[in-house]
Amino acid sequence: MSAYEPVIGLEVHAELLTKSKMFCSCAVVDSTAAEPNSAVCEICTGQPGTLPVINRRAVEYALRVALALDCQIAERSIFARKNYFYPDLPKGYQISQYEAPLAEGGRLTFRVDEQREATARVRRVHLEEDTGKLFHRQGHSLVDFNRSGVPLLEIVSEPDLHAVDEVIGYATALRTLLQYLGVNSGDMEKGVIRFEANVSLRPKGSETLGTRVEIKNLNSFRGMARAIEHELDRQAVELSAGRRIVQETLGWDETAQVTVSQRGKEEAQDYRYFPEPDLPPLVVDAGWVDEIRSTLPELPRARRMRLTQAYDLTPYAADVLTSDPAVADYFEAAADASRLAAPDKLANWITGEFFALLNQASTKLADAPVTPAAMADLVDMVEDGTINATTGKDVLSRTFETGQAPHQIVEEQGLAQLSDRASLQPVIQQVLRDNPDQVAQYVSGKSALSQWFFGQVMRSTGGKANPQVVRSELEQALGLLGPPDDEG
Question: Is residue 102 in a domain?
């Protein structure tokens, strides 16, 4: 593929976290858990004679996203009917925006890796309604219309992405942005945010776009990366053999790890767009836009830069912490509660041991019994030498299980670290007296036994001894025996 340059654009569909649907008062429910067809009415199922009404909150959420992406907001946008037949589309058309979208011309700057950022232009941001869901069982297809009519925001990038890592960086940053704005949960497993990639190749150095294919409904970053990589390899083989690429819509077969043709790629005229006759133009007041702009939170990139500077974190640590607003809030609350001001150590404990416990228990951060103050308490005790890191991991696990404060666990269990040199010297001498054979081997040159002696001392103290003090005192005690010749 070295002779070709990938050209990739993303279309992102994000369900908005409104209480009701886009054009009716039906509740928005979890389509993966609710009883099928329990949140439907005559409007969202397309019954004759019904009239849609625009959801103001959905428009507000869409404006939040458009403003965060530095888009130009249209004073007047128009809803249109996008005509096509599919069993999960009850009206036979989808209400969307086409020629006059809500916003255009934005951009998103995102991190590709620790050394590089990139920027992709955003072509348009527009509102539409979601479709229902099909379930295929025992040779039959069933339709659940609970999702039909849920407010859907479509965000279309320009074809500015030229590598798979750029695609994942952009998609990840956009998902995080939607979470920070409070308009989408980002739960890809539930399908509330879905990605479609437009993929093509062109000869390196060329400015002419190649024939693109669209890979539909990519619902994980790993699947997206594999699907795009596979498609780029497939197109490179076709072009190198002198064959042309057919413009089509593809699906990704996760089991076979291949893209599969679904249908010929439609053009705009295939959908017979025309203005929705039952909805007036959407006119957005400039004062309302300014009001929404004033309520925007600190956005992910700005927060990442602030955490890096204010807490002296590595770019990687700041990136991990700010990938979820709840995690960033947790970290800052813990840093405020810490008496030792060791934010880099807090970041390591949160993204390491604490994340591992959350994953093992399949627990969300909001439901974890380890408060930010408790995390600060734990890390402070490790940093001031009250407990060592090994004991700290055990204490964190107990706090996670019981909700008890770390310092209470340490006090009740007698887990405080032994750092007093006078108390540790007799323990070291006892270990040496109890193991004369190993002492003789060490003196004869087997220097590696020093680590074995260290383990015996730690075992004798129940793991509570300060490792740094033990190593220092043990080195002195062994030195008095006569140094090994380092040949063992």
Answer: yes
Residue 427 near residue 473 (C-beta atoms within 8 A) = no
283 & 253 share domain: yes
* pTM score, whole prediction: 0.84
Q: Tell me how far CA of residue 231 lies from CA of 143, 146, 248, 253, 261, in angstroms.
A: 31, 33, 12, 12, 11
Contact 96, 115 (CB under 8 A): no
243, 345: one domain: no
Q: Are residues 374 and 306 in the same domain?
A: yes
Q: How far apart are CA 228 and CA 165, in angstroms?
A: 10
Residue 460: count other Cβ atoms within 10 Å of its Cβ: 17
Q: Tell me how far apart the alpha carbons of residues 194 and 45 are, in angstroms, rounded to a whole number.
A: 22
Residue numbers of the domain that contains 380: 298-413
* Angle (nearest 5°) at CA 408 between 329 and 341: 40
What are the per-10-residue average pLDDT scores of the chain (488 residues)? 90 97 97 94 93 97 98 97 88 94 97 92 97 90 95 98 97 97 94 95 91 91 95 94 91 89 68 91 97 97 95 92 95 94 93 96 93 96 88 95 94 78 80 86 84 86 78 82 57
CATH of the domain at 438: 1.10.10.410
Same domain, yes or no, for 305 and 372?
yes
Phi, psi of 274 (to 5 degrees): -155, 155
Residue pair 11/154 in contact (Cβ under 8 Å)? The answer is yes
Q: Where a domain ends, among 387, 413, 439? A: 413
CA distances from 7 to 124, 230, 232, 236, 266 (A): 18, 14, 10, 12, 19
Are residue 155 and residue 73 in the same domain, yes or no?
yes
Distance CA 251, CA 197 (A): 10
| CB of 390 closer than 8 Å to CB of 398 | no
Task: Tell me the two tokens of residue 180.
Answer: 């920070």
Other C-beta atoms within 10 Å of 105: how many? 15
Do 391 and 462 sit in the same domain of this protein? no
